[in-house]
Input
Amino acid sequence: MLEIRPNCERCDRDLAPHDAALICSFECTWCPDCVAGFPGRACPNCGGDLQLRPVRPAEALRRHPAGTTRVLSPA
Output
């Protein structure tokens, strides 16, 4: 199950579970504004493909809440 991390790893912007965010296969999480500056729109941590993070339906979010651990990657 996805963690649904609460922030962008680059700028530390808060990302609510329903906000647009992009993730790689390791769940590195980025806001669209930061991704716009990534060469080839690839994850700067692993070089992987970035995809829109799926939205967890409200009922499922109540049973399986989003993560609360903030992750920051060195710029």
